[in-house]
Input
Amino acid sequence: MGKFILGVLVTLIMLAIGVYCFFALGLAPVATASPAMPFEKKLASLGLNKRIEKEMPKNPPNIQMDDTAYQAAASIYKDNCAFCHGLPNQKRPPAATGMYPRPPQLFQGKGVTDDELGETYWKVANGIRLTGMPAYKPTLNDQQLWQVTMLLKNADKLPQSSQQVLGGAIGQAAPEKVDDADHEHEPKQ
Output
């Protein structure tokens, strides 16, 4: 029994050394144009989904969104988010084209209108490590974070005034096909 435990221990140590060497010797694919490592997407999304599930607000505040609030949220989105996530009826921004993973185009297709409010809030507030998605909690106040969350949740039914802030009517044909891989839902376990 002692030899078996020693064998398992040596195997785990060798595996850890191998993984360390893989990264330390520069063998890991770190360029955005490189293909994903085996299980990279699965492990990253598993960790992200579990963390969000654990930390997202379960009972979002009752945010009253009127025309003025939607316009404010649209301005915040345009100033802070459109650089990567795009605007309605426009091509994918150049920055988003070169990113890995590619940021979802939030006004194309269903965006995040099907996500829970708390999940979208968490992503906007905290960002997502190693994706280019910054945390906005240090720069936006809680009301602004919730306004942007509500804007994205209701992106398919925004008032005309906020659509104008974003550059035009939402729902027109997009100038390019949106890659379905932009917004993948992993089954929550």
In short: The mean pLDDT is 88.
